[in-house]
Structures are given as structure tokens and as C-alpha cells.
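Pipeline run #58 for the internal structure catalog. This entry was flagged by the ingest filter as a single-chain record with no existing model, so it goes straight to prediction. Upstream metadata was stripped on purpose; only the residue string is passed forward. Reviewer on rotation: M.T. Logging verbosity set to normal.
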Amino acid sequence: MADPNKIRPTLKALINHPHARPNTTPAPAKIRNVYHRIAREARERQYGERPWITLAAAATFTLNSPSSLVSLHSVASSATPLLTPLAVAELIREVGLKCISFNGIPRTINCLGAFKESLDINPWAKNLANQPTRGVSPENLPGVKQRGVDLWTSVYTPFHQKLYEKLGTSHPDLPVHILNSHYGPLLADPSDKDVPERKKLGYVGRNLTSVVAVACLRAQTGVGPQVLSHVYGLRKGIAQGLHEQEFAELGGQEGGADRRGIERLAGDEGCEWLLNSVDSIARAIGGNFAAWRQEAIADEDLDEGVVLDGEVDESRGLSEEEKNEGIARESKL
């Protein structure tokens, strides 16, 4: 048997072939201008500081550009006098962690690792949080599960139970995994007794988590129904008054401005601005979430009268009218 720790050069070359885009995305030359404009518009529209940093960070994590995160940190630190560079860094890191639920683990690993390395040259970096707060134990498991259920209910009410059951028909463990691996231990915040004061610098509460969801999913493309669900989720969080406590915990002038800002952001005009801001970041960095270029099917994948894997093309022999009727019928399912 071949040595499992060694691979042939041709396999390694294929893994890293440019067509598979194996590397993170470099920061475009003018990404700072984009972040500056978003910061300025957020200030003019009074959307608060943390909301715009949150949407910009979530979009940038999704687009797999850690070097752009460095630019975002620089812009946000200079454009937000109420937030220290340490607080901005903690906020960006916490956003990146929650991006796992929408983008998957690898992009967060790559982006957080490179982002942390870029921060280490700063004297204040030694004060970055270094103790975990989301460990699950027999003692805290009931609380973790309940926080997940509470968040799920808040986002999807009054359809939370119906949605849970519908997801279960796709796969019985799908809703179980979503609630017990994402909503409970990750998207819902740990209890106060598990979070030291310093950790609260990166606090991403109920409504900022909805901003993370909207920004990630919008930047991905192809998941419009989920974008819509989380836009509603943001609006419901405000209607339920959950932002009052969320930003009261920050205290002072900063908390009050962000509380009022997230209220405005949840309105129609605010949500349009949120989506347009994400789009501007995606246009600058470049969409790359599963961004394969469509090409003609290779000859070896074609066989007359047969589709891939030997599946018979059932449309052969049908009239155009019959084909169109079938397409229309399927679109209603």
C-alpha cells in the first residue's frame, strides 16, 4: 500500500490547479473605498456602527478574502470613534464564527487564521479573547438546547413548528442538526455566566445574527428563499423588542446608537441598503461561492438518447407543447 502521507505530484498539482481556485481571494485595490462608502452611508442614515461592520464582515468572509478583512478592520477602526481597534477585531472574529452556519467551516478557518495573524503586530492584540465560551457539558446542555429553540422560534414564528416538520421530511436528522449543532451552540449566544466581560467586545446578538445571515446568503447567491426568510427574521427580532436587551448590554452612547440603528436597518429602506451594500462588496471582491464556469459537456459524458449515469431522457419523442406542459407542472411542485 502507498504511504498515506505522500501523494504523487500530479495529484497535488490537480488539487491546486488554477481552474479549481484553491486559494483565498486577494483584496482588490479599491476595497477600502467600498468599506469607506458603506461606513459613510451608515452614518448618514443612522444605522449604527456594529450593524454595518457586521454586514461587511459577513459578506467578506463569504467571499473568502481574509486580506479584505484586514482592510475592513483598518477602515472600521478609523471610521468608528466609539469602537476601539480591539473591539472591532473581536466583532469581526465573532461574525466569522457565526458565518460557519451559512458558509461552512473551511472559509471561516482560512479567513480567521489569516485575519488573526494580521492583528498580531499590534500591542493590543495580546488582549484578544483566548478562552472558549461555547463548550457543551451535561450540566449546560439543556440551556444550550433551549436557547436554540428560542432563537429558531423567534426567527421563524409563526411557522417555526411547520418548518421544523417540513425539513424533517427531507431528512429526519436535518432539523435536529440545524437546531442542536447551529442554532443552540453557535447562533444563540452563550449564557452570561459563560462569557467574561472582555468577550462581550465581540457580542453578536439576536438581530446582528440575522444581519450575518442575510449578508452571507446574499453574497453566496442562489439562495433567495433563505435570504427572504432571514430578512423577515431581522424584522421579527425588532418587532419582538429583542434588540432592546441586545444593545443595552453594550451600554453607553454606543449601545443606544446601535439599538436605534438596527431598528432603521430592519425597515424596507434599510434592508434594501443592506442588500445593496453586500452586492457592492461582492462586485468589488468577486463572487466565488461555487463559481464554476459553465462549459459544454465533455464527449465522454454524452451518449445518444441517454443522459448521465444511464438515465433515459424522457423528453425524447415529446412535442414542444408536451415538454412545456411538463416544465410548467414541475415548477409548481
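catalog note: The two ends are 50 Å apart (CA to CA).
catalog note: The CA atoms of residues 247 and 255 lie 5 Å apart.
status: ready for reviewer M.T.
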